[in-house]
């Protein structure tokens, strides 16, 4: 148990669907992150939130929309995705942005 | 060329062998991280280091800042060490990690 939970663990959606991924951390951390892991590619940072403010957007398409209502919760809203967006989406948190990151189990997303 | 390169990409060894995984980077960093990812996706942070050497159980991580190189060593390897090991660097002055492509380690009994 890492203290970072993600739901759902698996998601299958069509290209016209709208869905949301949820991340929750129980560690009292101030920074939260979304990462994408595609097959045979390194982990890619998508978004960083520090004290609920977005501090990094790594050129992510607008069909991915993050939301951080408080320092414990992070959402990734998905709409009109493409099949190439199928990947493992990982959430992480850290005390400060330069500190050790703790990862959730990930959501495996399949876009049909 | 990626900013973080790992070698080897795949490594198979017998139980008990001494394992070394290498990581080279080409950017200024504030810290280097070693992570472990098991089948199913879960990632665990093993080490964060900015100089010298750290040890935890059978795992040892070293970094040479001048040469921009780090190694992860596993002593007395065990089949439960089988996983993907990922090197990542915190970019100096930026709030982001850049990841290597990972090394898939398989330890046979």
Write up this protein.
The complex is a heterodimer of chains A (112) and B (109). Chain A is mostly beta strands and 112 residues long. Chain A is built from no helices and eleven strands. Chain B contains no helices and eleven strands. Chain B has strands at residues 4-7, 10-14, 19-25, 29-37, 43-49, 52-56, 59-64, 69-74, 83-91, 97-99, 103-108. The interface between A and B is medium-sized, with 26 and 25 residues.
Give the gist of this structure.
The complex is a heterodimer of chains A (112) and B (109). Chain A contains no helices and 11 strands.
- Which structural class fits the helix and strand makeup of chain B? mainly beta
* Helix/strand order of chain B, N-terminal first: EEEEEEEEEEE
Number of distinct beta strands of chain A: 11
Sheet of most strands of chain B: 6 strands, mixed
Annotation keywords:
heterodimer; A: 112 residues; mainly beta; 7-stranded mixed sheet; B: 109 residues; 6-stranded mixed sheet; 5-stranded antiparallel sheet; 11 strands; globular
Task: Record the SSE blueprint.
The complex is a heterodimer of chains A (112) and B (109).
Chain A: E1 4-7, E2 10-13, E3 18-25, E4 31-37, E5 44-50, E6 53-57, E7 64-70, E8 73-79, E9 87-94, E10 102-103, E11 107-111
Parallel strand pairs in A: 2-11
Antiparallel strand pairs in A: 1-3, 3-8, 4-5, 4-9, 5-6, 7-8, 9-10, 9-11
Chain B: E1 4-7, E2 10-14, E3 19-25, E4 29-37, E5 43-49, E6 52-56, E7 59-64, E8 69-74, E9 83-91, E10 97-99, E11 103-108
Parallel strand pairs in B: 2-11
Antiparallel strand pairs in B: 1-3, 3-8, 4-5, 4-9, 6-7, 7-8, 9-10, 9-11
């Amino acid at each position: 148990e890492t203290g970072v939970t993600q739901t759902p663990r698996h998601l299958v959606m069509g290209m016209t669907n709208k869905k949301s991924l949820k991340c929750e951390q129980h560690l009292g951390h101030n920074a939260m992150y979304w990462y994408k892991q595609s097959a045979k590619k390194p982990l890619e940072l998508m978004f960083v939130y520090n004290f609920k403010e977005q501090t990094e957007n790594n050129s992510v398409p607008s069909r991915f929309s993050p939301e951080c209502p408080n320092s414990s919760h992070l959402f990734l809203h998905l709409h009109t995705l493409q099949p190439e967006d199928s990947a493992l989406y990982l959430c992480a948190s850290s005390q400060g942005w330069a500190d050790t990151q703790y990862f959730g189990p990930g959501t495996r997303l399949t876009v049909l | 060329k990626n900013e973080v390169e790992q070698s080897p990409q795949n490594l198979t060894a017998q139980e008990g062998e001494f394992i070394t995984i290498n990581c080279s980077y080409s950017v200024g960093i504030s810290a280097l991280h070693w992570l472990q990812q098991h089948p199913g996706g879960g990632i665990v942070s093993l080490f964060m280091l900015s100089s010298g050497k750290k040890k935890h159980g059978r795992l040892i991580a070293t970094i040479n800042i001048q040469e921009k190189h780090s190694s992860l060593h596993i002593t007395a390897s065990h089949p439960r060490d089988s996983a993907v090991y990922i090197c990542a660097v915190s970019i100096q002055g930026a709030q982001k990690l850049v990841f290597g492509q990972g090394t898939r380690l398989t330890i046979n009994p």
